[in-house]
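Lay summary. Proteins are chains of building blocks that fold into shapes, and those shapes determine what they do. In this project we predict the shape from the chain. Here is one chain we studied, written as its sequence of building blocks.
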Amino acid sequence: MRRWISLVKIRRILLCVLAVLAACGLGVVPALAGDKVASKNLTGEEAARHVQETNTVCGPVASTRYVEGSPNKPTYLNFDHPYPHQTFTAVIGESARAKFKDAPEVAFKEKTICATGLITTNSRGKAQMDITDPSQIVIQDTPPPATNQTDAATVK
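And here is the predicted shape, written in a compact code that computers can read:
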């Protein structure tokens, strides 16, 4: 009986430590709470196979839209192809939108970005992610790779 009590105390201490780590923003708790956490960046197309995983999705923003007249006034960042043919959407709600320095639909349009968070699906079954903080989105500085035509032209 005494050993069981000690294990309960240890478990409580461990949970307190995890709560402190989560409060510090170290992101440990979602992984332990049942969400899967993957280790590589995904494309918009790959995101659909990783629903309910916390991950980073990268790709070009093909279209954006701020729907001011809709509940929660969402901003949509559609990856790879314009809506309705997008492969993935980063959704920025009204409360998160206020945290951005510039309007997200302008700042990220035609940029290649990476968005980090929990991948879910919308009502049409397309992969999406709710963005609650600007730190979840990073603009990629890397230019696109050279095409084979460019490479072929330099070969003699």
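What the prediction tells us: The beta strands are 36-37, 53-66, 75-79, 89-92, 112-121, 127-131, 137-139.
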